[in-house]
Structure formats: structure tokens, C-alpha cells
Automatic annotation (TrEMBL):
The entry's keywords: Signal
Gene Ontology molecular function: peptidoglycan lytic transglycosylase activity
Protein name: Lytic transglycosylase
rRNA processing in keyword set: no
Domain annotation Transglycosylase SLT: ranges: 40-330
Signal peptide extent: 1-22
Annotated Gene3D superfamilies: 1.10.530.10, Bacterial muramidase
PANTHER family attached to this UniProt entry: LYTIC MUREIN TRANSGLYCOSYLASE, MEMBRANE-BOUND LYTIC MUREIN TRANSGLYCOSYLASE B
Amino acid sequence: MLRRRFLVGGAVSAAAVTPAFAKSKVTHASSSAAEQGSYAAFLAGVRREAISKGLSASVVDDALALTSEPNAKVLKADRHQPEFTLTWAQYKARVITDKKISDGQAAVNKREALLGKVSQLYGVDRGVIAGIWGLESAYGTKMGTFHVVDALATLAYDGRRAAFFRTELFKALAILGQGDITPAGMLGSYAGAMGQPQFMPSAYEQYAASFPAGGRRDIWNNEGDVFASIANYLAKCHWIAGQPWGEAVDVPDSIDQGQIGRTIVRPVSYWATQGVRPQVGGDFTHMGLSGAIIRPDGVGGEAYMVYHNFNVIRRYNPSDFYALGVGLLGSAVA
């Protein structure tokens, strides 16, 4: 039976590598905190560099005033993340609970009109938007309580991936300079994943959007901006409107395990001739598409036909488990 390791920390959901981590190479620190000198000296260097980049001194000072020493809770979370070895069945049971579904249905029903408008504007399925919202921040209720500048400065000074977090710190300061959020309002996970979509600052710069367009991009408090930002992320990663992400299927024993895998893409019509059938019964409704069969727990476990849009969800977080969780939760709540 196949198993996968996940690290869990702060507001980041089980399974969860945050979006910016999903798209960024992790770079190890070239020097230790001791080699850099005191934290005060480190912050002074950050201030000088930020101002030299054209950022307002008052904005930088307000942001750095939130961090006077390395945050012990951030360092503890970074260094002592509990490690779990989960099967797909175990992961599914953790993230797609009856409560998560009922909470999601209530949240989506309350915001049906807004989700519909954003979905139509970006051409992205509203269920997938809701699924990401649900997995990343429990429908906006758990986005983290760490001050992002404090967390990023701590990890840039004394973390295992100092170079990566230093880059994210300067991007966070640049976002503050744009006036989209205040330093005190820029909250997120211990690793700096921000707001309800859990964007790293680099992801925010590339994908955050306002709805309606033209306003501040507030992914912390404005649900229109939250949904638009998630949808914009997927749209820019080439989501195809009107196509499904995937579906549960029954796979006959006659299909060799060597044909199973996300990269083995064949026309749906081919799979149908091999005896693959939708689990809900009947024939495939998307016979003109191409797809792959994945069976996360191996022979005897659940099987899914996944299409192009499944791989787009994986651009948000490069995990089959995560993409399946988003798709199934989204289908259940929307």
C-alpha cells in the first residue's frame, strides 16, 4: 500500500505545502544566525536594503516594529513539525469530514452569488475555488495568527531556509508598501503563508486579485478578493473552463498496474474499451477528453480518472492527495 509523508504546521493544513512553496526551490541558508550577528543588526540590514530598493522608511519601520527578537513559536514550529505517514484513505478521512462538508455547504450557500460571479469571470469551477478555500483556511476561519513580517524575519535570520525566507520577507515589505494591508493586519501561518488562500508573498505578487477589479487586494478580509485570487491562480495556470478535474472510477483487474499513473494519459474512449467505468454508473460524459488513472493506495484502493484540470490544481500544491481533496470537497460543498 502506498504511503506519503506530510509535514503539518501552524495554519497550514495536513498535506499542505503552501502555494508559493509549491512553485519555489528551497534554498538552504549560507550562514548561520550567529554568523550574521545580533537580530537587531540583522533587522537594521533589512531596513537599509528595503529603503535602498525604494520602499518607504515609515512603512518599513512600522513593519519591523512588530519583530524585536526571533519568534520562538515560529522557530519551534519550523524545527519540530510533526511528521505523519498517511495513506490516501487516511488523508481523505482527515480532510473530508462530515463537519468539513456541512460547514462548506453552509459557507457556499451563504456566498452563492459571489462565488458564481467570480467563477464566471475567471472561467474556473466554483467548487474547486470552494475546495481550496476549505482546505487552506477552513472557509476563512483559520488563516493563522502570526504577523507575517515577524515570522519571515525570524526564519530569514535563524531558519533552515534563510535565503528563501529573506526573499519572501522583502516581497512582504513591498506588498505593505503598496498599501493593500497594514503590517498588523498581514496575518498568516508560522511560515508566512498569508490570508485565506494561504499565499506566500511571492504568490500574492503574481496571483492576488481584487473583485471587483481595481481595488486593494485584501485576501485577509474581503471574500471577493479571496475567491478572485484563488480563481486567478488557477486561470493563470491554464484551467480549462467547462472541463472536470476528475471522477471516481472502477478499474478492472485486467488493467496492468503499469498503465496506472498521472503521466499515462490516454483518450477516455480508450479507457472505456478497457473496461474502466464511472463509479456512479453509466458511460463517461466526457468521452472526447483524455485522462489518466490514479490509484493513490495501489491495487485494491480507490481509483480516479483525472483530467487536465487536476494538474492545474496540483500547481497550487503539488500533491495528488491535495488535488483529490480539493476536487472531492469542492464537489461535495458546491
